[in-house]
Amino acid sequence: MFVLFWFRKSDSTSEKIKRKEIPDYDALGSICCRITIDTQVMDIGSVHIILRRSMWDEKAQRVTGNDTAVRRNNRTLNDIKNKLERIYELLQVENDADVTPGMVKDLFTGKKFFRYSLEQLMTEYFKDRAEEVTANIITQDTIDVHRNYSNNFTDFLTQKSLRALTPTNFDVDNIDTFKIFLLTKGFAYSHVRKHLGWVKQLLKHSLRKKRIKSNPLEGVKVPSESDEPDTTHLTIPQLECLIHFDFYRLNKLGFLPEETAERLDRERDAFVFSSFTGMHHCDYSKKIYWLEEIKGADFLIGERKKTKKTFALKLLEPAIEVLKKYGDQIGNLPTKSNQR
Q1: HSE of 309 in the Cβ direction (CA atoms, 13 Å)?
Q2: In the prediction, which pLDDT does 327 show?
Q3: What gap in Å lies between CA 202 and CA 180, rounded to an integer?
Q4: DSSP category for residue 335
Q5: Choosing a second label site near 106 at 20 to 30 A (CA), which of 60, 212, 236, 252?
């Protein structure tokens, strides 16, 4: 399919008179769109961009200039072209590649409603999210996590013979079945809950993008069910034992090489630092933070790598001791005035 934007002169009487009386008159008009599939041509119609003829670059298919209105108009053209191409791709899958321009136009203008499958909704979801990564709204790490959820969801649909189920029929019974499916595979409920939340997010996003007429999980809450006690977290007394443990003594006694003792000592301090600040390793290793005193207490102020949101973490004494020990090796905390 080929998408073409073209300049159409205004049909108003005043514009016709000006064009006739002024030889070099810069005509006023609007941008229209048409699509071609093989030899079949179909006009989509006006895209509601009004401009002078001199502002339209027919070869580049762009509005010329660099002000806010021009950039907005060019984004509109990009969005229209992308939407038409995505409709065409979906119709090819649905109709075994036998697609006419009229079919594309009907879906684009809303005269007909495309019936997406759950897998198609996932495909479109990740295309939208990829654009958000490019715009630095979310990170690729977030997409990778969501991709893992979608892979497990696809496995569920396949094994339960639900791939043909229409999205609007994916109700609370199906989400419960998905929950049991994941628990049976050995997932902790905290991880299962994230999967269920992602499915709700998928349908909510699809409704907002008008790919489905209604969200069957609207108002459905994913219950917070506690897992078995998580014994992977250390208590404060256990952390204190770890803080004061002497790995070099094990070296002196012949149980550890000196190199291993040194590495374990540093790893222990990094763990303690994270435990008493709540700071992620990827955040403090990037050194995009600073030290600030607030009401007599020391705080770390910075930006999360994953969410791009600002955080403020109160420093407890064990974390301060680690900072004193290593200094610039884990960031050499700058003040707000000389951050980054």
Answers
A1: 5
A2: 53
A3: 19
A4: B
A5: 60
